[in-house]
Every structure is written in structure tokens, then in C-alpha cells.
Amino acid sequence: MGMPETDAEIVLHTMDLPGDPSVHYLVDDVSNAVAVARSAGCVIREPPFDVAIGRCSVLEDPFGNLVGILDMSRGPRPI
Fold first, then answer.
1. Among 22, 30, 50, 67, which residue's beta carbon has the most beta carbons within 10 A?
2. What would the DSSP string read from start to end of 29-61?
């Protein structure tokens, strides 16, 4: 759901993940970022999947925090 007059958006999902707030980081390439994260000890909770603007993945860091990563390989969301 896009917010008027801003690039901010709310994304609803049905994945089997806790309802806690999460942080998402924009990366150049989700697949490459997943490989780097895995080698650094992260668990891939949700492998890369397609979204309207690119690809997304959900990682769990070594401390148990969930972190989303997103690329805009398909371009920004149309207004």
C-alpha cells in the first residue's frame, strides 16, 4: 500500500513469520546479498522471491533478529 506524496509504503504479507516490527534494507542484488549473509552466519528464513519491484528475502542474523533485504531490479513502484 503506497502512501500519498511519498515513496514510503506498507507491505502486507502472509509468510509464517512473527508479527514483530522488521527492518528491510535496499541492496543491489538480493541473490548476492543472501550468499554473503549466509557466509556470515545468517539463516535464510525466506529464500529470494519476486515482488512487484524486484526481489526480496528474509534473513535471521546470528542474534535471532529478522532482517529483510530488497532490490529494485524491476524498477520503482509505479505511482
1. 30
2. -HHHHHHHHHHTT-EEEEEEEEETTEEEEEEE-
Task: Tell me the per-residue pLDDT of 3-26, one tens digit each, with 9 for 90 and over.
Answer: 566 666 666 655 665 566 678 899
What domains can you pick out in the chain, each with its CATH number? 23-71 (3.10.180.10)
Whether 44 and 37 have beta carbons less than 8 Å apart is answered as: yes
- Angle at CA of residue 34, ends 37 and 40, nearest 5°: 15
The amino acid present at 50, given as its one-letter code, is D
